[in-house]
Amino acid sequence: MKIENDLGRDDIRRLVLRLAIPSMLAQFINVLYSVVDRIYIGNIPVIGETALAGVGVSGPIVTLISAFAYLVGLGGSPLMSIRMGEGQDEKAKKILANSFWMIVGLSSVLTLVLFVFKREILTRFGASEAILPYAESYFTIYLLGTVFALLSIGMNQFIICQGFARIGMISVALGAVTNIVLDPVFIFVFDMGVAGAAFATVLSQFASAAFVLRFLRGNRVLLRLEFECPQVKTVCKIALMGLSPFLIIAFDNVLIISLNTVIQMYGGAEADMLLTCTTIVQSFMLIVTMPLGGITSGTGAILGFNFGAGRPDRIRSAQKYITLLAVVQCSIMFLFSRTLAQYFVYLFTRNESYVELTVWAIRVYTMGIIPLAVQYEVVDGFTGMGVPSVAISLSMFRKLLYLVSVFLIPVFAGVENVFYAEVVSDFGGTTMSVIVYLLLIGRIMGRCVERAKLNGKAVEADT
């Protein structure tokens, strides 16, 4: 059996790069699911801009659904890494099996509940009468593939945490490429419009989920997926560990939904235009935050494994390289937003009034993305080391800053300035995260050393 990465022995700098880069690329490719859909939809003749606003309203709800995949995937995979680091493979296998059944159960409940209340949800979250038909068409079809979406995202984390980052990237690429190929066929050739984009997405997620499950059931993985009966105690541990990334992703989308609602409240006749621009801005931010999350969460296996193995030296070294890589990625995207944002917007629309407003909004929205890189690593680092309560608190602090700003800025400065809410939350959230990290990291590393002693392991220094 060949392992791609030895989490406990390989050189830390190279290990970080080998896990972070494929995970970053995988998340970038994953962004293509929604961004490519929106590009094609925005270019549908006559109705493009209106349909794009409809998909923009349903988009945050769709992503909110995917948060449940991260609840399980980013809850179970750090626990699995820690157990593997401790040498407790049987417990690690039970975590894997329980995670699978959690995803199946959650996807079934979500599909039923959301299908019943879909129209009311879309209306309350910003869909006007003009854009509701497009939002409902996309959302209804997407719900049919909920189980595939959650399995492909959630179970892929258990491939990555076993050291197979390249395979994890391939699974995402398979779905994204399938989506890119099928989108124009369903949208334009079959003349299905928005519904065609949703069908293409569902089929793509099915392909990705099938690949992930086949690999986890194969012989290449260290720990193979077995369909054991779920255990309440293990399920609760996974849910508790995954609560932080779940709340981070879920609340991110609650904030976008709040933004859409505020725009609809204060935007007047220009509300649908602002929603279209917001949809493009959020598409750009996905290209920033999804790869960033790939770097910081994809390397969490290194932190979890070495925390379980009692190696604080390797944890500190890994965090240094992870932070540096995250800052570089966000710096590149910051420069892109200042120089090439117009060309990104042209992918969605050629209407100059839309283009001018959206380019300005992108430049405002991205003012704080470089410090945001540090905040992501601090939060995901705490999660990877099994300290989800701190991660949740820091994430919620940043989201609260955003939420308050979204509701206050339109009242005092006009609805068009609501985009500055992201700047307030990025700088404020990062400052708080750095302060808390400096206060707590020494104590957490002490727990790491103590954990190794309790498991009868000697803490070794890097050579």
UniProtKB/TrEMBL annotation:
It is a multi-pass membrane protein. It is found in: Cell membrane. The keyword Transmembrane helix applies. It holds the Pfam family MatE. GO terms for cellular component: plasma membrane. The chain crosses the membrane at residues 15-36, 51-74, 95-117, 137-155, 167-190, 196-217, 238-263, 283-309, 321-345, 357-379, 400-421, 427-445. One of its GO terms (molecular function) is xenobiotic transmembrane transporter activity. It comes from the Bacteria. Keywords: Cell membrane, Membrane, Transmembrane, Transmembrane helix, Transport. The keyword Membrane applies. This is MATE family efflux transporter. It comes from Clostridium fessum.
